[in-house]
Amino acid sequence: MGKFRLFGLQTDEISDREIKHRKLAREVASEGMVLLKNEGILPLQPQKIALYGAGARMTVKGGTGSGNMQERYSVTIEEGLINAGFEIVSGRWLERFDESFAKEKEEWRLGIEEKIKHYKPWEVQKMFDEVIHVMPLRFPIGDLIQETDISAETDTAIYVIARQAGESADRKLEKGDYYLSEVEEKNLSFLADKYKKILLVINCGGILDMSVLDKVQGIGAVLHFVQGGEEGGMGREATDKELSGGVICDGIGSSLAALFGVLPNTSFSQNVGLVTMTKVVNRIALACGAVFLILCGLFPKLGALISIMPQSVLGGAAVMMFSSIIVSGIQLITKEPLDARRLSIVSVALGVGYGMGVSPAILEHTPQAVQLMFGESGIVPAAFVAILLNVILPKSKPANEETSKDE
Questions:
Q1: How many whole angstroms separate alpha carbon 314 and alpha carbon 310?
Q2: Taking the model in full, what pTM does it have?
Q3: Residues 174-204: pLDDT tens digits?
Q4: Which residues of 178-217 are buried (b: 16+ CB within 10 A; e: fewer)?
């Protein structure tokens, strides 16, 4: 009989491996939060805050049944906020939620025990099929938020909508599951009337109907917690709506520019650094900046006032901005492991781009069209070389494929 190797510890001590994996799990959890909407509410600084919703204390960390996880401990959204320095000032609703769910869970347990007591030990599978699987304990939602649950100590509220699925707990196309329940919609509407800033957190691993955003005005930010995110200036990948909106806006702006006989719009790379530093992508803030630039163009004295800004201030801002652009580029490059193929592409592209950018005289004996395309900036030749090498160089073989061949 073959020997088995046990990798886990047989004691309760915390191993170095567990500490390392715990740190990695925290990084994955933070990167798995996707910002769906933000109208100037995020980021939040430690402060007094009102917290409601089932997911605040019953934060979903995994599925049900075989999809459940038996970890040493887990941190709820409420605990995470407190650990970060926030003070929860809406404990009345949360305490009532705990009491209500504890009572509901106990009634469910007693009902299950009553129905299964006549089953024999060898009828376990039959018991699951006939009783436990058809009488799941539904994930709670909570009750209506009352006037006495509102705190006058803060103008900011967080409402956490949670859904859980897994073994014997499939999602359903009904209110309280795929659709928001009437209680959840009424609670959001009530909070929007009572608080100036509302952050809606979706603690759900599956899809959820979000038409409530069209019904309730005042929800300033929406955060999807559980699903994985991507790298970007806001710590995530731009959504399809944001990408299409940006392209349409750029196209309309360029068309209007052509009507007035000026050049089309151009998206400057400085914007990447600005977004990375400030985290501001709110349309109202950007519109205010555009109006200010228009006023500077119409009123020379206003433009002159801006031009007297000390060069040291402009230089410091420029250093931070362009450094952020470089860091964002490095993050994108190192997002995937740098094997020999990727390293060759990055090295050659950076070398060609930097060389042509510093010494444009390299192209003085080439046709004028080539000089116009590649001589003004090193970005174009670097991009061209990277794309060309990516097509020409053979792709690396997966590690598992090489291992199977060796075996």
A1: 7
A2: 0.54
A3: 898 889 999 999 999 999 999 999 999 998 8
A4: ebbeeebbebbbbbbebbebbbbbbbbbeebebebeeebe
